[in-house]
Structure formats: C-alpha cells, structure tokens
Amino acid sequence: MDGKHSWHLRAPLTIVLLIWIGVAWIAVLLIGLAIWGAFGQPPLDGPLSGRERFLLITTPVALATATVVMIRVVITARDHELSKINQAETQRHNVEQRITDLHIRAAGLLESDKAHIRVTALHDLERLAQANPHLRQSVVDEFCFYLKQPYEPPAREPQSPHRPPAEASEPANLQPSFRRRRKTSGLMLLLMTTAVDYLNERSAPSTTPVREQHEDDDSDDKKADSASERRVRLHAQTILARHLRPNDPENFWTDIDLNLSEAALENINLSDCEVRNIDLSYATLYGEFNLQRIHIRGRAFVLLAHFHRHGSILFQDAIFDGPMSFNAAELNGLAVDSFEGAKARARARLPQGQRHLLPRGLRLEAVPEGAEYARLIR
C-alpha cells in the first residue's frame, strides 16, 4: 500500500484494533469519572438492592458487547476501504497494461512493409499520446526513431528528350490526287517496314535476358517503395509539428525534447513550434528546413548536420533561450563546412552571455548593454 492512503489502512490490523479498544476504554473511564464527580461516591454501608446488583452485572457485559461490536465495525470498515482501493488499483493496472499493449502494437506496425499500415500506426501513436500526457515524450521518441531509419528521397523523373515528330505541314496548293498518292505510298512503306521488322524478330534469337527484365521490375518496385516511404515520413513530420505549436492549446504537447540526431528529414516545417531541446546532430536534411518563429527553451544542437544543395534554411524571428550550435567550426577540433550550398536568411534572437557556434556568414548584432537577447544577422 502506498503512502498516500491513511494510516489505519497502512498499519497492521492488530495495532489498529488495540488503538481503537484503548480509545474506547479511555472514553468509558472518563465518562465514569465525570459521573462520579457529578453525583458523588455511591453509598456502600448497606446491602445492594436488586436493581443495583442487576446494574453491577449488566454494565460489564454491555461494555464487553460494545467492545466486540466496535471491533467488528472497525474490521468491516477497514475491509471495505481496502477492497475499494484494491479495485481501483486493479483497474488502473489494467488500463496501464492496455495502454502498454497498444503502444507496443502501434510501434510494431511501424516496421510493416506497407505504407498505409505505417500511417495507421502513426495515427494510433498520436491518439495514444493525446489521451495520455505521460506517454507523449515516449511517442515523440518513437516518431524520431522512425525518422532515423536509412532513407534517401526518390530521384525525380527527368522529362524524356524524345518526342514524337510533328506531322509535316503540307502546302495548301497540292492537288487532291497527288495527296491521295502520297498517303497511299506512305501507308505501303509503313506496312512493308512493319512486316520486315516482324520477320526479323521471329528469325533472330532474343537478345534481352530474363535477368534484365527482373532488374527492371525490381527497380520499379524500389522507386514505388521510396515514393511511399517519402509520403509516410512527411506525414510523421506533419504530426510532430502539429503537436508542438502552442497556438493550439488542446493539441499542444509541452516540454518535449526532439532527438533527431542522425535522422533523414525532408522539407521539415517546425515554424511557430515550441520545444525544450532539439538535437539535429549528424542529421541529413533535404529541401527546406523551416524554423521560423520557433522557440527553443533549451539547447539547439546541430553539429555536423548535412544540408543538401538547393535547400533553404529559414529561421526568421526564432528565439533560442539556450546555447545554439549550428554546424560550427572549431568544435572538439572538428572543422566543418557550414550549410553547403544552402541559403540562410536569418533574423533570430539569441540569449546574451552564452557561447554560440553560428552558421558561416552569420553573426550576432551589437545590442545595448544589459539586453536579454542579441539579434542574429548576416
């Protein structure tokens, strides 16, 4: 029994009964002394009458009966309260066990090879965390772990340079008979060419191995899987961002740490979010990295994150309450090329008096002495 229950439920039953019996006898003694003092000592110089003898016999019996009844009442009340507490604890344990089973099941579904099942698992975890605040950090960790799986965005299909030739325009002054002969000659030439190609294919052995056909099929399957995985990852990032924005109090999850170290992220949008700490060390980021108006109350750690070319990093009006490390050089002796080919448009605020490792090309603006934040500018 935990310490939040009253003492008479945590103490052994024998001690409880002795305490109650002692309290009852002390109460009887005090009442007797009060009656003795109020009415004086009863006369003892003559024989006792029948009524006095009756009272002398029945009074101890009544006291003993009252003591037994009191003991029974104490035991019954204690058993009833213990039963309610045990029932509540059993129900709580069953609920926690059910939540744990749902959590394990949803986390296991994230390993499915079917994209729609993985999306369903993400929604199950989201509902579980929304209904159970103590599980929110654990669910966020599950999302982050999923985003740490090996991933590379699918390559975009280039447009084919081969286009069907446009039909040649005919002069308007051609005679109808000449046009008919021209069309007939073209049709005959097409039929003859088709027939020759068909005969060559029948007579010549096949030059396309079966293995190449299988390789083409495997390549198509990999492209489809990569596209499906991309959609699932973007959906996971959207769910995370939705619950980190304080402008929606009902869905906002407070005091969340985002551990996205070694994650593969694509077009992640954390604008207007609020987190406690964020770790993007050794992460790989594709496309846009949006931190506009984000509020990081702890530490922002982005050591050695790799930003692909043609991306953009946006953190206008972001607020960092703790130290900020953004792919900086001279960190544990490592020389890092910051933001390879990416754009950095910054107007963020950083706390004064802390050591910040800033992206290349950015610096802290001089601010009046005593100011709480310094502004990050190009």
From TrEMBL:
Q: Report residue spans for region: Disordered.
A: 151-179, 201-230
Which superkingdom heads the taxonomic lineage of this protein's source?
Bacteria
Q: Which regions are flagged for Basic and acidic residues bias?
A: 220-230
Spans traversing the lipid bilayer? 12-39, 54-75
Keywords of the record, alphabetical order, are:
Coiled coil, Membrane, Transmembrane, Transmembrane helix
The residues forming a coiled coil are 78-105
The identity of this protein, by name, is: Pentapeptide repeat-containing protein
